Amino acid sequence: MATQHLKLDSTKLSAELFYSAFLSLSETEKESFLSRLLNSLNSKAISFTSKGKPLSKKQYIQHIENISKEVKKGNFISHDDVLKELDNE
Questions:
Q1: Integer-rounded Cα radius of gyration of the chain
Q2: Phi, psi values for residue 76, rounded to 5°
Q3: pTM given for the model
Q4: Sign of the four-CA dihedral 51, 52, 53, 55
Q5: Which pLDDT tens digits describe the chain residue by residue (89 residues)?
Q6: CA-based angle 43:31:44, to the nearest 5?
Q7: How far is CA 29 from CA 21, 38, 42, 74, in A?
Q8: 54, 58, 60, 89: which one has the fewest Cβ atoms less than 10 Å from its Cβ?
Q9: Integer distance in angstroms from the first to the last C-alpha of the chain?
Q10: How is residue 77 annotated by DSSP?
Q11: Cα(29)–Cα(40) distance, rounded to whole angstroms?
Q12: Where do the structural domains in the chain lie, given as residue ranges?
């Protein structure tokens, strides 16, 4: 139990040191840091296509927008039609 308490204390200390270091940055450095952090988060895979391709948040949004456009054009197969195709196999 003492080891767990020590770990929590060191984590809290690390967070406080990080926060203090962040506060000591100039406004330009803070903006740059936050921008890089957001770019890093946005480039990580948050979803996968049906074929297993990883998609970043930006790619996922674009993927959904493309699908929506295709549906609006009428380019889709209804659930009933899929069931009929499966029955015919």
A1: 24
A2: -160, 165
A3: 0.46
A4: positive
A5: 445 555 557 777 788 888 899 899 999 999 999 998 888 777 788 888 888 888 888 888 998 999 999 999 999 888 998 898 888 87
A6: 10
A7: 11, 14, 20, 49
A8: 89
A9: 61
A10: -
A11: 16
A12: 1-43, 48-89
